[in-house]
Amino acid sequence: MLNVERWMFPGGSERSEGRARPTSFPRRYASGFTLIELILVMALLTILVSFAAPKLSQFFRGRTLNSEARRLLAVTRGGQSRAVSEGLPIDLWVDAEKGAFGLEAEPTFTTSDSKAEEFVLDTGVQIQVIHRATATPVTPLSRSRQTSTASTPRTVLARANLPAIRFLPDGSIGETSPQMLRLTGADGGSLWLAQARDGLCYEIRDTDK
């Protein structure tokens, strides 16, 4: 009796006695989203964005105000360092109407300042210069200690028509410098750049006290 061996091709059909019998494969159906499902997903996304948009815009406005305050603080430190290193008064002038500020050396020491810098605040951020009157005790001077106004050195600002923070060559802040600079954002929030308690530098505060 003749024995017939049955064998299979890999991934193919079963062969017996030289005849092929095709194997059956399950049908595969492509899956996807229907139009109604897509519309529902878009509607849910729209609702979520409408709730999140106000908080996101408020967050970014707060970030803008904070970054502008930090930039202004960095400019004050740069001006103070330059005054010490170059040995001449440096003014940080502020133009509240144009929303601009900058650094420039006192004109009496140099005819033109090649290192002068000018910056513009971000749109929506306003700056305000705040002077606070401080009571200073008046002590009578004797004749030997009295000085004439002619011997008092005259202060010439880099921008004579604008308020300015003056950094002196010894690293101190000029007496005529404003005590505070107020930055106000589009949402009404404010940050203050105020003189530190020791009066040697400026710092960022979230209140005017």
Compose a concise summary of this entry.
The protein is an alpha+beta fold and 209 residues long. The protein has one helix and eleven strands, in the order E-E-E-H-E-E-E-E-E-E-E-E.
Task: Describe the overall structure.
With 209 residues, the protein is α+β, with helices and mostly antiparallel strands. Helix content is 25%, strand content 23%. The chain has one helix spanning 35-86; strands at 7-8, 14-16, 19-21, 90-95, 100-105, 117-120, 126-130, 164-167, 180-184, 190-195, 202-205. Strands 6-5-4-8 form a 4-stranded antiparallel β-sheet.
Give helix % range.
Answer: 10-25%
Count of DSSP-assigned helices = 1
Number of strands: 11
Assign the CATH class: Alpha Beta
**CATH architecture field:** 3-Layer(bab) Sandwich
Specify the structural class. alpha+beta
- N- and C-termini, Cα separation: 111 Å
Number of folding domains?
1
Taking all residues together, what is the mean pLDDT?
76
Beta strand %: 15-25%
What is the chain-wise order of helices and strands?
A: EEEHEEEEEEEE
Query: Unreliable stretches, pLDDT < 50, 5 or more residues?
Result: 134-153
- Largest sheet geometry: 4 strands, antiparallel
Main sheet: strand order: 6-5-4-8
Secondary structure: elements and pairs:
Elements: E1 7-8, E2 14-16, E3 19-21, H1 35-86, E4 90-95, E5 100-105, E6 117-120, E7 126-130, E8 164-167, E9 180-184, E10 190-195, E11 202-205
Antiparallel strand pairs: 1-2, 2-3, 4-5, 4-8, 5-6, 7-9, 9-10, 10-11
